[in-house]
UniProtKB/TrEMBL annotation:
Residues 1-23 form the signal peptide. The lineage of its organism: Eukaryota, Metazoa, Spiralia, Lophotrochozoa, Annelida. Keywords: Signal. This is Uncharacterized protein. It comes from the Eukaryota.
């Protein structure tokens, strides 16, 4: 299972549990669609989300040339809080 599928599955679960299912269509997403969905959630909920890449700049990519995008959902999304 690739990272996009895992992230997509977790995002779908979160959207259903928080009643945000209207924010993103619940379906299988390819890589580009998943990035778009993550960006859409971040744009709709900027106070509780933080979107960043684990792979950094343009030259630091996966072996397939893709970035590893991460979306954090929290009351303090840019602060790592132990135990949360």
């Amino acid at each position: 299972m690739n990272a996009a599928v895992v992230v997509g599955s977790l995002l779908a679960i979160l959207l259903v549990q928080t009643r945000w299912s209207h924010a993103v269509e619940l379906k299988d997403h390819d890589y580009d669609q998943m990035l778009d969905a993550m960006e859409e959630v971040h744009q709709k909920c900027p106070n509780i989300t933080y979107l960043y890449s684990l792979t950094g700049g343009k030259t630091n990519r996966t072996v397939l040339g893709k970035r590893l995008a991460v979306i954090v959902l929290s009351d303090n999304p840019q602060i790592h809080e132990l135990g949360k």
